[in-house]
Amino acid sequence: MLRSLVYKRTFATALKETILPKKYGGRYTVTLLPGDGVGKEVTDSVISIFNAENIPIDWETVEISGLDNKENVKLAVESLKRNKIGLKGIWHTPADQVGHGSLNVALRKQLDIYANVAIFKSIPGVKTKIPDVDLVVIRENTEGEFSGLEHESVEGVVESLKITTKAKSERIAKFAFDFAQRNGRHSVCAVHKANIMKLGDGLFRNTVTKIGESQYPKINTSSIIVDNASMQAVAKPHQFDVMVTPSMYGTILGNIGAALIGGPGLVAGANFGKEFAVFEPGSRHVGLDIKGQNIANPTGMILSATLMLDHLGLKQSAERITNAVKDVIAEGKSTTKDIGGNASTTEFTNAVINKLASTPL
Ligand SMILES: NC(=O)C1=CN([C@@H]2O[C@H](COP(=O)(O)OP(=O)(O)OC[C@H]3O[C@@H](n4cnc5c(N)ncnc54)[C@H](O)[C@@H]3O)[C@@H](O)[C@H]2O)C=CC1
Ligand SMILES: O=C(O)CCC(=O)C(=O)O
Ligand SMILES: [Mg+2]
């Protein structure tokens, strides 16, 4: 019955070094970036729930699309520079337009929000093949395969640059071990392909291993090749606790993690840097195909927003909302289509609000 509290604890202390935003008149201003696809529907769900709970947050909404000129990302960057904290949906990046880079990547790089945390934890009531999954993927956000640096050196020959630096490998490693330590986790596993990319992935793997073994003796440090990691995560996910990855392996394992717990609509996540924290669903799906249909599952966005409340020190509210979401899912009467129900996004949201209304403070 108390699984929800255990679930909550994972989120409790996401980061120690990110500077907290200031409150004005007892309220925070948070940058809201709804994004494309289902972003507006699932952030509307958060707004309704926060309004019902009188959460002391004012939203500064920046409505841009991944299809916009890349320059437009500066509107989001400027707002986040003011507010230090954001709640974000995902911007769509067209795969067939050469030269149109990802606004998601641009934002992360410009704010140096280098650590992505995605939480893959089974939610009671959601039917999955493997029960009790509980793993966290911590992913480097600012280099690696997502550098977006490509050129055609001669016709028919394309070089895509994957950048790996010691400094960025060190800071993501430290972040992962700190996260593990502060959240009562027992092991950190570095995911790599150092058998092929001996220099780049070798640097990543060796850096994580060295930092773990020398600075975090109480945490078990290990490493695994990404291909095997993918197979093991599908077959025996319980062997993993915290996985730390370069950018590409993180998105692949993150999509495996989403499938393990019941879909992308359930995954909470956040991005942290020294100065900024931006909360967004952990497996980062856009959901263009179901946009505007009022059928998206807003759980991942709501749980990401509760991580934000934790970060702001509003822990009681974070816990109340998490528990209400989990209770509504466990009861199974008002769940969305992706997890076998037939409630709309709005009906699920209202069920959460009703649950909160009937739960004493
Ligand atoms: N295509 C793009 O523009 C972008 C893609 N990505 C990444 O690419 C990978 C795949 O992306 P896409 O093919 O665009 O996937 P997608 O956004 O189309 O999602 C895959 C499936 O999950 C469903 N889904 C997504 N969110 C949902 C929700 N909240 N509730 C219920 N169902 C939901 C969608 O309807 C779809 O059937 C992911 O790793 C994602 O992080 C990330 C950012 C932009
Ligand atoms: O930003 C994009 O278009 C894709 C990025 C992605 O797959 C991710 O961040 O997980
Ligand atoms: Mg992805």
Description of the structure:
By secondary structure, this protein is of the alpha/beta class. The chain contains eleven helices and twelve strands. The chain has helices at 3-11, 39-52, 73-83, 103-111, 166-182, 200-215, 226-235, 247-261, 299-311, 315-331, 345-357; strands at residues 28-33, 57-61, 85-88, 115-121, 134-140, 144-154, 157-163, 187-192, 220-225, 242-245, 268-272, 277-279. The strands form two sheets. A ten-stranded mixed sheet has the order 2-1-3-12-11-4-5-10-8-9, sandwiched between helices. Strand 6 and strand 7 form a beta hairpin. Helix 2 packs across helix 9 (299-311) and helix 3 runs parallel beside helix 4. Mean pLDDT is 93; it is low at 1-14.
Low-confidence stretches: 1-14
> In percent terms, what proportion of residues is strand?
15-25%
Mean model confidence by pLDDT = 93
**Hetero groups:** 1,4-dihydronicotinamide adenine dinucleotide, 2-oxoglutaric acid, magnesium ion
What's the multimeric state?
single chain
Number of strands: 12
C-alpha end-to-end distance: 19 Å
Largest sheet: 10 strands, mixed
Tally of separate helices: 11
Overall spatial form:
globular
Helix content class: 25-40%
- Strands of the widest sheet, in order across it, are 2-1-3-12-11-4-5-10-8-9
Instruction: Determine the structural class based on helices, strands and strand pairing.
Output: alpha/beta
The run of helices and strands is: HEHEHEHEEEEHEHEHEHEEHHH
The Cα radius of gyration reads 20 Å
What does the secondary structure layout of this molecule look like, with pairings?
Layout: H1 3-11, E1 28-33, H2 39-52, E2 57-61, H3 73-83, E3 85-88, H4 103-111, E4 115-121, E5 134-140, E6 144-154, E7 157-163, H5 166-182, E8 187-192, H6 200-215, E9 220-225, H7 226-235, E10 242-245, H8 247-261, E11 268-272, E12 277-279, H9 299-311, H10 315-331, H11 345-357
Parallel strand pairs: 1-2, 1-3, 3-12, 5-10, 8-9, 8-10
Antiparallel strand pairs: 4-5, 4-11, 6-7, 11-12
Helix pairs in contact: 2-9, 2-11, 3-4, 5-6, 7-8, 9-10, 10-11
The structure holds 1,4-dihydronicotinamide adenine dinucleotide (NAI), 2-oxoglutaric acid and magnesium ion.
